[in-house]
Amino acid sequence: MHYPIGLLFDLLASSSALPWNITVHFKGFPEKDLLHCPSKDAIEAHFMSCVKEADALKHKSQIINEMQKKDHKQLWMGLHNDRFDQFWAINRKLMEYPAEENGFRYIPFRIYQTTTERPFIQKLFRPVSTDGQLHTLGDLLKEVCPSAVAPEDGEKKNQVMIHGIEPMLETPLQWLSEHLSYPDNFLHISIIPQPTD
Q1: Cα–Cα distance between 169 and 181 in angstroms, integer?
Q2: Where is each Autophagy protein ATG5 UblA domain found (predicted)?
Q3: What CATH number is associated with residue 96?
């Protein structure tokens, strides 16, 4: 429940055919593996907590703190009711930044790997280098998860997936954050073994 469905698909079933078959069990909830959801309010609180964390990274929490309670509710209700216009009217503010800053303060991202026990990797990473160059997805991976990137003369062992696609490593991280972040405003990046077929 606490991972977006697209992320779960990238991690667990990206090589399977669509539509994705999901089995729902109504008994024997795996308490050790999944976060139990006691109510709809708990889901809303978790979602808003993630949005606030992402805004703290991007804008020092300035945007989310300037919003009124009704804006927070509109953001949640737009997502909950699958009303993109209602959601985007508020979320747009969280995706903006002053032109003179060339991007967010830090990129809110999480990297997930199927080959490790660690749930995800999350570190501070700026979208622009100290010399003013835009950082790319490849730059992020080389610094945070170097095993995910194939050496220049080596064989590619991993696929980097976001929303079911494999973006080029040369893609600017700021652009990815603006256009491929999940509704919680995080860029969820999956690193999976390269398919053999």
Answers
A1: 16
A2: 1-26
A3: 3.10.20.90
